[in-house]
Amino acid sequence: MVNRPIPAPGSNKAKDVTRYFSRLALLGLFSLGSSLSLAQPPAADNQPLPLESLRLFAEALERIKQNYVNEVSDEQLLEYAIQGMVANLDPHSSYLPPREFRELQESTSGEFGGLGIEVDQQDGFIRVVAPIDDTPAQRAGIQSGDHIIKIDGNSVSSLGLDEAINMMRGKPGSKVTLTLMREGQPKPLELTLERAIIQVKSVKPKVYEQEYAYLRITQFQDDTGTEVQRALSKMQKEQRLKGVVLDLRNNPGGVLQAAVDVADAFLPPGLVVYTQGRDKQDRIDFEATQADLSNNLPLVVLINGGSASASEIVAGALQDRKRAVLLGEPSFGKGSVQSIMPLGAEGALKITTALYFTPNGRSIQAEGIEPDIPVANASVTRLENSGPSIREADLRGHLGNGGGNTHKAGESIQTLMESDYQLFEAFNLLKALSLVKGN
């Protein structure tokens, strides 16, 4: 075994290394500070850089270079240092190397490769926030709240969130096996999924009984606000609507401005959300600027534990401004703002720079949005009617109704009772609001 000599902390070589890496660190921090100043003014009480800590960093770097079992380049070590520095800030801050930065840009544009699953990290495991509709994850039956414990047989307990996501991404057509723990299931579930190009349609409109609009938003992309406004306008032209259900369940969020644009479709001008950074002056208000495109139709918003971030912004704004009734389950509680700051030639930093607040000043972070009417997801079983099953129409010689039949064609809301109980209750509430309003 050959040992390389380790420079003593006080040796000339160690001092040279310390000076070299101190200069390197100073240059890097100066560049980073310049980037940050574009996003927000530097704090007035900036302290001098801790040179003793920089020397400690340089010494650790040199010892790793000299003694680690495998050779590691300076570039790799510095990238690892940035990753560790950012990852320890909070669960949503991270360093994005070039490939991950490109993937993030693709996901907000509406097309990317992978499984179609939004995840975060919890208790050493990867937790499913929500599967995206019409993706391999959703078709395989992955549910919000599932915990991924293995990827292709490899435990995720020692992996960071970014590493786990990278393992799930891959070439379309290739396969990956996920091992999941699900509440109420005594044994792990093993699912093999085929990766695909994920093309997300963020807005899915539908009309029930020719009178009630249904808008499901799967995530907030750059053009989601425009899609909502276009769908709403089209449905209003084609039928006389009596109300709207806006479904934000299992919507993991996305682009902030898209959330503001969606809220703008249902609100008169006024505050939608504001962000507050470290300093009081960092507050930024986001407002609705146009008239309510829905013409103040009764509105019910569906949320659950998979509704996060931008979904909570929309739900909170509509709730605070008394524009909608929220029904379902408490939302996820992701109320922090991540800013993307290009770093170097192709990478970026994703760091938390502020918190979201609803128009009434409520922080969403770790609190979420409470529904006005709690309705848990449930399975409904119809009871067989024990009484007489004969109705007037069954009687011999019964009279006709004189042409007064008011039955509406189209998909019936009653069909939702067993397949989607929360949506069924949302439409029942919408009907009641419509009746009270006299629509």
Distance between the termini: 86 Å
Our estimate of the beta-strand percent is 15-25%
User: What number is the mean pLDDT?
Assistant: 85
Low-confidence stretches: 1-44
What are the secondary-structure elements, in order, as H or E? Answer: HHHEHEEEHEEHEEEEEHEHEEEHEEEEHH
- The portion of residues assigned to helices is 25-40%
Rg, alpha carbons: 27 Å
- Return the structural class: alpha+beta
Number of H- or I-type helical stretches: 11
Got a strand count?
A: 19
Largest sheet: 6 strands, antiparallel
Taken from the alpha-carbon principal axes, the silhouette is: globular
Could you please describe the fold and organization of this structure?
By secondary structure, the chain is an alpha+beta fold. Helices cover 32% and strands 23% of the residues. The chain has eleven helices and 19 strands. It has helices at 12-39, 51-67, 74-87, 98-109, 136-139, 161-168, 224-238, 256-264, 310-320, 416-419, 421-437; strands at residues 94-96, 111-114, 117-122, 125-131, 147-151, 154-155, 175-181, 189-194, 196-199, 203-208, 212-217, 243-247, 270-276, 284-288, 299-303, 325-328, 336-343, 347-357, 373-374. Strands 3, 4, 5, 6, 7 and 8 form a six-stranded antiparallel sheet that branches. Strands 10-11-12-15-16-19 form a six-stranded mixed sheet, sandwiched between helices. Strands 1, 13, 14, 17 and 18 form a five-stranded antiparallel sheet that branches. Strand 3 and strand 4 (125-131) form a beta hairpin. Helix 1 crosses helix 2, helix 7 (224-238) packs parallel to helix 8 and helix 8 runs parallel beside helix 9. It is globular, with a radius of gyration of 27 Å. The termini are far apart. Mean pLDDT is 85; it is low at 1-44.
